[in-house]
Amino acid sequence: MTRVGPEEFFACPSCKAVGSGHPLLSYTNFSVEVRTDGFSPQGGPGQVGLPGVTRCHGCAEVFLPARAERVSRVRGAPKLVHPGEQEFLEAIEHGLFEDRAECLVLRLSAWRLGNGAPGAERAEGPPRCPEAKQNLERLFDLLDVGDADHLILKAEVARHLGRFETCAALLDDLPRGLSEPWRSTIAELARSESRGLGTVRTDWSSDLYLACKECGARSRTRAPGRGGALRCSLWIVECRECSHVAWAVDLKVDDPSPERASWPWVLLAWLAGWVAALWLGLRGSPLKFLGLSVIPLLIANAFFRLWLRDRAWPLARLPNMEQLLDCVDREDWRGPIEERWVRTQAWRRSCEEGARDPGTWTERAQRNQDRLQPLLSDGQEGVLLSAEIARRASRFDEAIELLAEHPHAEWDPRVKRARNLAREGDALSAPV
Predict the structure, then answer these.
(1) What does the alpha-carbon distance between residue 122 and residue 284 come to, in Å, rounded to a whole number?
(2) d(CA 298, CA 311)
(3) Which residues contact 58 (CB under 8 A, 6 or more apart)?
(4) Cα 5 to Cα 23, 26, 48, 212, distances in angstroms
(5) From its phi and psi, is residue 85 left (phi > 0), alpha (psi between -120 and 50) or beta?
(6) Which pLDDT value is given to residue 119?
(7) Nearest to 59, CA basis, from 10, 16, 8
(8) pLDDT at residue 19 tops 60
């Protein structure tokens, strides 16, 4: 659910003219179709709530509302205007960013807005002006190949710059998981040497049907994800029969067809519907008779499909702490992105079980935590994880300093909770 806070008022750093806006408190994106540059038609941070950059209505200078002076209520103050590509390019040119992460956000926003409004498609061809092309080249250099979301964006930027071979090579480095729709869509555009935008369908609610390679037991799992436009979720599951642990995407069954066995039951329900229709519709019209016979068919079909699916494909289990640490010990990953994900999941599970029983924190868990720290990037998730590791190690001041560097420190509820735990000196609570 996307929620905005009460109206706040901001003074322009140059002329002190006051504008108003509503800060973003929480953001959830359930969009199914997303552009290949990551722009969601539903909007997101910078599209709803406070704009990332705005132009002052008094002096026409651009500034960042998040760092502007907050003032008391001013009656009749105009709303802060959401910017276009030019405002972001001006903010970059004037150096209105404090670190690499903030610069990355500004350059990414400028590129996406240059591609058109949410849902619109940009015409084929290179960036329209020299500044936009320079921004795209700098953005390519800023994106981190060690982050799955960044790797997808880096491949897409390379395609927009006409570097189709580089785009294909970057796509080959993507990890297993929900990155597959992005890989196939961008790869197809690169093969046709297209620089236009594509659309990716990201259905976070779909089930994945699995068959264990050890014992053949069937199960299913709901694809994880927090609704982010580029969320590349990876996951490992445990077989319910033989306790074998493997990557879910390696156990995927393309055509499970769990509904076929339901047809005898559906036919029986349909016949029962006809009997009911004959009994109730003898004195009615033919249309009423047809409706009374079709409705039971539809209800029975839906019910038996769900019932037989749950029996034939029960939900898979998630592995416990020891099983995840076993994955770490045998290095069950392909490349640095998957390594960081496996170590992160093992660390989280170790912390959750350690919060319930401190005696479960073992030497293996400590060794995994020590090796995880250098793998973390300086992006949003990397900063949050680094702060949580510092908090778990009782380095509370370091955790608070790291959280202050988070680009969404003002509205992200996870950052707020982690900061509160660090201020309270809580080193035992499970990670946010």
Answers:
(1) 57
(2) 20
(3) 12, 15, 16, 17
(4) 5, 9, 11, 48
(5) alpha
(6) 40
(7) 16
(8) yes
Distances (CA, A) of 322 to 190, 196, 353, 365: 42, 47, 11, 9
21 contacts 4 by C-beta, under 8 angstroms: no
Helix extents (H) in 282-315: 286-312
Report the sign of the C-alpha dihedral through residues 169, 340, 225, 406, in that order: negative
In the structure encoding, which two tokens stand for residue 100, read together? 């690499």
pLDDT of residue 175: 76
Q: Is the pLDDT reported for residue 263 higher than 70?
A: no
Residue-level pLDDT at 282: 55
Place of tokens 């038996």: 304
Q: Which two structure tokens, joined as six digits, stand for 384?
A: 């949050």
Query: Three-class SS of residue 62?
Result: strand
Task: Assess whether pLDDT exceeds 50 at residue 100.
Answer: yes
**C-alpha to C-alpha distance for 179 and 166, rounded to whole angstroms:** 18
> Domain residue spans in the chain?
3-201, 203-256, 260-312
**Structural element, H or E, at residue 25:** strand 24-26
pTM, to two decimals: 0.68
Element (H, E) at 19: strand 18-21
The 10s digit of each residue's pLDDT in 215-261 is 888 888 765 443 333 444 457 888 888 888 888 878 877 656 544 44
What is the dihedral angle through the alpha carbons of 10, 11, 17, 22, rounded to the nearest 10 degrees? -10
Rounded Cα distance between 353 and 360, Å, is: 7
Instruction: Lowest mean pLDDT of 1-10, 139-148, 160-169, 393-402, name the range.
Output: 1-10
| Residue 191 pLDDT exceeds 90 | yes
Q: Which of 94, 99, 10, 100 is nearest to 49 (CA)?
A: 10
CA 248 to chain centre: 18
User: Where would I find the H helices in 46-179?
Assistant: 85-93, 100-114, 130-142, 148-160, 164-172
- Please check whether residue 54 is in contact with residue 222, taking contact to mean a CB–CB distance below 8 angstroms: no
pLDDT in tens, 365-409: 889 998 998 888 777 778 889 999 999 888 999 999 988 887 677
**Which residue is listed with tokens 């496996």?**
342
Q: 250, 234 in Cβ contact below 8 A?
A: no
Q: Is 80 helix (H, G, I), strand (E, B) or coil?
A: coil
Name the one residue in this structure whose structure tokens are 């416990």.
Answer: 320
C-alpha span between 387 and 404 (Å, rounded): 10
